[in-house]
Design goal:
By secondary structure, the protein is of the alpha/beta class. 32% of the residues lie in helices and 31% in strands. The chain contains 4 helices and 6 strands; from the N terminus they run ββαββαβααβ. Strands 1, 2, 3, 4, 5 and 6 form a 6-stranded mixed beta sheet that branches. The C terminus is likely disordered.
């Protein structure tokens, strides 16, 4: 069985908006790393009012990935930070729709699910790399 890259993460900040860009699978193998990475990025960027997750590079989300999004939403709400899942694929939208979490997690986006945050680097991008596998089912 071949292994595929799991998840690469970068974050950039523009003003009070922090954008996290995961690339790869958000699943059982990578969900905890995603949680840790976002927590560290938020700690390094105090005053963040909006966290955008640019979902363009996410190619697979399982129940643990969905759980990671839900836990993130809960933590951000306690900190009064908004969450937007931008540039979602049709597969991710379908997963969120089937599980009844689309409105709860995605919130209003600028272009109906494919909103892009145009960000400039204010802070140096951070990156992380893990291993995992998967495609949308």
């Amino acid at each position: 069985m071949s292994r595929r890259p799991g998840l690469e993460l970068t974050a950039v900040r523009q003003g009070r908006v922090l954008t996290v860009r995961p690339v790869g699978a958000l699943d059982f193998d990578t969900g905890e790393e995603f949680d840790r990475y976002v927590a560290e990025a938020l700690a390094e960027n105090p005053g963040t009012e909006l966290l955008r997750v640019d979902c363009t590079g996410i190619d697979h989300v399982d129940s643990m990935g969905l759980s990671a999004f839900l836990m993130l939403r809960r933590r951000l709400r306690a900190r009064e930070v908004e969450l937007r899942l931008d540039r979602r694929s049709a597969g991710l939208d379908r997963l969120l729709e089937i599980t009844g979490t689309l409105d709860h997690l995605a919130g209003p986006s600028e272009d109906g699910g494919t909103a892009a945050a145009d960000t400039a680097d204010e802070a140096a991008p951070r990156s992380a790399d893990n291993s995992g596998a998967g495609q949308f089912s």
